[in-house]
Amino acid sequence: MKRLLITGAAGGIGTAMRSRLAHLAETLRLADIAPIPDPAPNEEVVQCDLADRDAVFDMVAGCDGIVHLGGVPVERSFNQILNANIIGLFNLFEAARAHDRPRILFASSNHAIGYYRQTERLTAASPTKPDSLYGVSKVFGEALASMYFHKFGQETASVRIGSCETRPTDRRMLATWLSHDDFAALAERVFAVPRLGCPIIYGASANDENWWDNGSVSYLGWRPRDSSAKWRAEIEATTPRPAPDDPVALFQGGIFTQEPIHED
Amino acid sequence: MKRLLITGAAGGIGTAMRSRLAHLAETLRLADIAPIPDPAPNEEVVQCDLADRDAVFDMVAGCDGIVHLGGVPVERSFNQILNANIIGLFNLFEAARAHDRPRILFASSNHAIGYYRQTERLTAASPTKPDSLYGVSKVFGEALASMYFHKFGQETASVRIGSCETRPTDRRMLATWLSHDDFAALAERVFAVPRLGCPIIYGASANDENWWDNGSVSYLGWRPRDSSAKWRAEIEATTPRPAPDDPVALFQGGIFTQEPIHED
Amino acid sequence: MKRLLITGAAGGIGTAMRSRLAHLAETLRLADIAPIPDPAPNEEVVQCDLADRDAVFDMVAGCDGIVHLGGVPVERSFNQILNANIIGLFNLFEAARAHDRPRILFASSNHAIGYYRQTERLTAASPTKPDSLYGVSKVFGEALASMYFHKFGQETASVRIGSCETRPTDRRMLATWLSHDDFAALAERVFAVPRLGCPIIYGASANDENWWDNGSVSYLGWRPRDSSAKWRAEIEATTPRPAPDDPVALFQGGIFTQEPIHED
Amino acid sequence: MKRLLITGAAGGIGTAMRSRLAHLAETLRLADIAPIPDPAPNEEVVQCDLADRDAVFDMVAGCDGIVHLGGVPVERSFNQILNANIIGLFNLFEAARAHDRPRILFASSNHAIGYYRQTERLTAASPTKPDSLYGVSKVFGEALASMYFHKFGQETASVRIGSCETRPTDRRMLATWLSHDDFAALAERVFAVPRLGCPIIYGASANDENWWDNGSVSYLGWRPRDSSAKWRAEIEATTPRPAPDDPVALFQGGIFTQEPIHED
Amino acid sequence: MKRLLITGAAGGIGTAMRSRLAHLAETLRLADIAPIPDPAPNEEVVQCDLADRDAVFDMVAGCDGIVHLGGVPVERSFNQILNANIIGLFNLFEAARAHDRPRILFASSNHAIGYYRQTERLTAASPTKPDSLYGVSKVFGEALASMYFHKFGQETASVRIGSCETRPTDRRMLATWLSHDDFAALAERVFAVPRLGCPIIYGASANDENWWDNGSVSYLGWRPRDSSAKWRAEIEATTPRPAPDDPVALFQGGIFTQEPIHED
Amino acid sequence: MKRLLITGAAGGIGTAMRSRLAHLAETLRLADIAPIPDPAPNEEVVQCDLADRDAVFDMVAGCDGIVHLGGVPVERSFNQILNANIIGLFNLFEAARAHDRPRILFASSNHAIGYYRQTERLTAASPTKPDSLYGVSKVFGEALASMYFHKFGQETASVRIGSCETRPTDRRMLATWLSHDDFAALAERVFAVPRLGCPIIYGASANDENWWDNGSVSYLGWRPRDSSAKWRAEIEATTPRPAPDDPVALFQGGIFTQEPIHED
Description:
Six copies of one chain form a homohexamer.
Chain A: E1 3-7, H1 12-20, E2 27-32, E3 43-47, H2 53-60, E4 65-68, H3 78-98, E5 103-109, H4 133-152, E6 156-161, E7 163-164, H5 173-176, E8 177-178, H6 180-192, E9 200-203, H7 229-238, H8 247-250
Helix pairs in contact in A: 1-6, 2-3, 3-4
């Protein structure tokens, strides 16, 4: 690619992707609502509020691929989620439609299915069960991606990210952890395969504990390499075992199921 | 019930429901963004813009059940759909949460799954495939209903209405037609059953042609009685047979799949 | 048939079957632990404790078919269930094996799957979820029938009876009611079909409300004719609507899910 | 339609269709390897060996629809089946491709799935289990139809006919019987629907006994009206009940499963 | 844990678990109907007949977890199985209920599904097909565990053990072998996970040959490490290949399917 | 085995199998329509046209196993496919029936399911979707194998070979590649297992990209060891990425979907 856009590039995952995805394009365009200091020579920086349609069109122009990490990443008030994750996402898809439909990796979330039990095993075809307004906005985003695919041929990978962190730090993350390297490897495949379609992909590493069956996207050739296993003993030794009916042990979405509706 | 709220009461379905659902409550509260003239003695009228949170709270206060037909019923610009079907729906669920969670019948739509082929048979568990921004807004609504059910115990029936009209008038409606009587009978069951849960229901009469399997809601005891069969001969005699690859013959959503993105 | 054995013949269902099944055999052998007065000319009476192996062998000798209604029909102490429903059932199958394997209709129960929600729809392949020791004994019985079929060719129909009563009398029975006539019609088919195999059959009439899909036994040619519909209005008018989280509204097994472990 | 071709028109089903399908087209073209005497004014007659490619092309020319009943209808030697059902079918599809792809109703057979047990319930997606060379030739035909659909857009309905006779005459036919009227009604729908696709359809009337779930073709709007029920008592009274392990009671294909490989 | 109870501790699996599970608790309580000589310092010994309710209550008192290997492990007379595996299991669950519901690992068996073909692949949701009275007793046990989970919150893992031996010694065990280390690793996970629920788990190592899909318990984080592969060449070289219709090659339960009903 | 027959032995796969399968039998009988020069001491050579029934009977006589690679391996005219793949296959199965039913490995093909999308994941139970006359002939062959299994007990493994080549050379082969070693290992298992049955097996190595789920034949104990991964970078660097709607990227059968009907 000539230019790969990463939105939400100032965040934790975005920062981790800057070096890991640099080889995919001549230029990385880094976008965020926050300023991004000190771009590298292969990087260009755009400050952009996703709710600003014109700004989003400018941001997308000239890009061959988009890793869309931008938006609100946790439970917030409806207005905040509306602006960033609903209006912002519509703006992004409209901009992509206007600019030759670059392939999109959309950071969806496990919170789109957070009310399933941890003892249940899901596929991409499992009906959604969002656990928060944030989760509802991710269902909206996946639906928007589906519509743009069928109507306009826009290819989008919706990745229901588990916990994309440096390492797992609690018992739930033994199942949900997605290493930065595995996420980057997934992004490579999303942009490499001849035909992407519009898949739902669960974003977790090759953990021994797992809730999600990615069989429907085996055509991508993504094989996660990391595992939470090397931190299991430490985590089980240093954190108390929750009761079986504690929401963090009961639901895939963990404590998001306990979040109230936030006021602005 | 003491008071049953019907939103969108000035529209075609709403008007048809006024007489058919009158026996369910002492008072029908009829709401619409348009004025509703000449209420009957058992009716009270509220004019309400769904995007106005305070007005929605007032509209919902004191109601024991809600038939939510309000909002934009066809493809429109994103802003129009955003206000009525996304912000408006959030307002409705927040108002219900604030007022003892009256049971809701939510008018979802076949356009939430409009990109399936007419040769496919769906269940409530089939992944959504919206055919328009309108259809995406219905997926949003169903997701919101699911979240309010699991988090707050709010019971909602999402009815994916086919074509709720006086009679079928084209070949696609031989499969999608929902008679006013059958819709009213469904509404009765939604408010009668001891436990509603949060089901997805396909809204079609007992037509010979059908695409949708309602097996998952057989616990409701809803048995549609009408059929498009008595108009089949007339429709097939008076309307040309579309080509097999005409979108009206190919997709469940029919011409909605051909709608462009509307500008304001 | 020359002789059809009905066990539990003194009970409610047994009594209702005496006239309804008389045409299936020259002689009805009526068995019960309680005495049965006044047999008709085509009837012979046997008093039998199912826990008494020799008595069971005598009871079964000479019969061409068995309708096994005997045993404890509700939650009781483990010892009572053990004697009648576990030891007694083993005795029955051993007696059948010793006497040319007459076909058996085994009265299993919805309480073998009583912990499913009323909003779930089951097939014969749904894993069991018994709601009581009584329900566990029915799972045992179905397993025993399966083993005798595969090992010895013993054909048995396990009928998970809903509520086999004269008429439905509460809201849950709108879904679970099995009329005496429909049960008798089922028994006819069990003894008429060339090959019975060893099916699981849900025993409910053609009620509008239903939780159970009998598709896997459509080869039997059983089509229930009765429906709870004609009592729905009366029942809904005269009985209060339970709360959605009341066990009688939540679980298929109803109040059996609330039964404690009984002491002797 | 202007001209509807019926092949195998001299056979039992073909004869029954002449009057029943006359209203579908201005002219019925009746074809058979045997002569057909006394055509009606709306009929034209063609004598044709399906193995003769040129003759088949002539037969198909000018037709708007094809009901293909021709070929060997029972177990025969491989050479006979090869000529009529394999070479003959290829000729038919090539002729259709050369002549504007008239829609085809292909008489497939239950013997394509004859080795399933009668206690099993099949859908159109059940893998084939042919019971004879005849059955294998029907699998070949369905595969050919599928390929011509995907490659050339040729629409074909493959109807796995049970027992299309005047009335059922044995116990197996209580499940497999397809009345002439119901078959004709199916043919009407095949030629009436805007989009046919390339479905597998089980051809049985609305019998109480049934082994086949036609849910996947509910979009056709075909609702069989007849039932074997009115002959059940007579058949069960006048024919002996086969043993449970008799092939006529065990397998859906009945005695075809016992046919040896025929020599020429 | 403070105290982990192992029943059947004098048997082969029990002996193998003594060292492998010692690290899970401060004290291992070893129980068996046979005496267990020479307990280690961290072990305490209880002699107990499972049919003796009071003895079972004493055995369970003070334990934080139970590995229930006790009972009859092969086909025996009904009375033997009744006492040890039916009455004995009820006693165990009652004792657990009386003593704060310690988590239970219940040694179920592949003989609960022994009549499936070796060419079939099962999940935890596959209906049971027991191959013996022993197998029926395991179905009873799993049903009892299910009921105690739903009614009382008792968490139990039912492990359908294949062949838990030092090494595989025949061709069937190439598929069914469960190494002692893998079983111990499973037991660790059963007691470690925050929420166990009431799962069915197939107990086999990571053999190349396998019949069972443990996808539904991937949340446990159990990954078997051993494989029968290193003995395959030896076994295939030194044991004759059974005929395809030999029960040891045909059924998952192997020769248990050939066991007669044992007399006392 | 004493004698293993390899048909099509002069072809690419056949040649690769000569050394790899030599250890399975004392003698390899190599057959082809083309001459095979220079047989090794353990090899015997037969020149045979599969359409010649007598020659096929001679070829099969005395063999304990058959690896049937013979026939037309690509799209050809109907007559060529008819002779080699339809008549020829019938001759082979008749010969096997006449000569004690040696186990057969039948080289079926991914072109039996070539019209599935590359984004779909198939199992052995997925309905066939052939992409060519060649593909149709493979469906015929699998159906014939099924019939001979159920009727005569003939065991056959139908292997839907992807791309059995020395190495993958294009992007589609990243998913479809089957190494010669993995194919040979599969053949070993087919002849080693006590019970083969009549399975459908997808023939692909352990590639990261994959479309096919072989779960239903996990009982065979076949674990492919090779992967296309080591050629991925080279292939992606040296071959252009096809457009998402290019048939080589869209369909599992690749360019076969674009093959016209060949004339002789």
